[in-house]
Design goal:
By secondary structure, the chain is α/β, with parallel strands linked by helices. The chain is built from 7 helices and 11 strands. The radius of gyration is 16 Å and the shape is globular. The protein starts with a strand and ends with a strand.
């Protein structure tokens, strides 16, 4: 499928898939969306300092990068697992401007290591952050009570509806520890109902710029 790099509303870039008219991040602001959905309403909502995170849709590694950055500032210790079936190309990586937009040049070697690290191996990026990338289909996730937090950042239900079904959310529910949180940018009614069907307690929250609502689901 034809892809191109675009600039989003906050100046940060993302990848646009022309055949789907879909982006890896919000066209209203890639960094703004990531902070609002996954950090403000996910990472910062957990009352703990040691956190195990599963990301569904590692993609550009923006969510991993800002999680690393905020873990360093806030004293978190993070074990991060990023699942991605179709990694982005090196050429695309070099065009993304997240490090410069954050204004933190010390993050550049970390971002490069996130993309350059071997798949399936634990890479210790700092004393407070380790990363394992797994190249596989999301339906191959078979973890049991392993995570405190899931960043559910798959492509939207309009273009990939099978990724937003009760079947996959059941795997997400099983992968979380008790009181674990799943956050996603989607607020579609069918998504909420599928989350509730598998046992999540779901709340609608104000969305990031350009989006009215998002969802946070808790394993109770």
């Amino acid at each position: 499928m034809k892809r191109k790099i675009i600039v989003t509303g906050d100046g940060s870039k993302t990848i646009h898939i022309e055949d789907w008219n879909e982006q890896y991040h919000s066209k209203h602001g890639a960094i703004q969306e990531a902070y609002h959905v996954f950090l403000k309403n996910g990472l910062f909502a957990l009352e703990r300092s040691r956190i195990s995170i599963l990301e569904i849709g590692f993609g550009t590694a923006l969510n991993a990068l800002i999680t690393y950055y905020e873990a360093q500032k806030n004293g978190f210790t993070i074990e991060y697992v990023g699942v991605e079936a179709f990694p982005i190309s090196f050429g695309e990586i070099t065009q993304l401007n997240y490090v410069s937009q954050l204004g933190e040049n010390q993050l550049r070697p970390i971002y490069e290591r996130m993309h350059g690290s071997p798949w399936g191996e634990t890479v210790v990026l700092s004393p407070f952050f380790s990363l394992i990338k797994q190249q596989k289909d999301f339906f191959e996730v078979e973890d049991d009570a392993s995570f405190n937090l899931i960043y559910f950042d798959a492509f939207g239900p309009r273009v990939q509806p099978k990724l937003w079904t009760a079947e996959l959310f059941r795997k997400m529910h099983r992968a979380l520890q008790a009181n674990g949180i799943l956050v996603t940018y989607s607020a579609k009614g069918s998504v909420r109902r599928n989350l509730e069907e598998v046992g999540f307690s779901v709340e609608r929250l104000p969305g990031p710029p350009g989006k009215r609502e998002m969802l946070r689901a808790v394993k109770v």
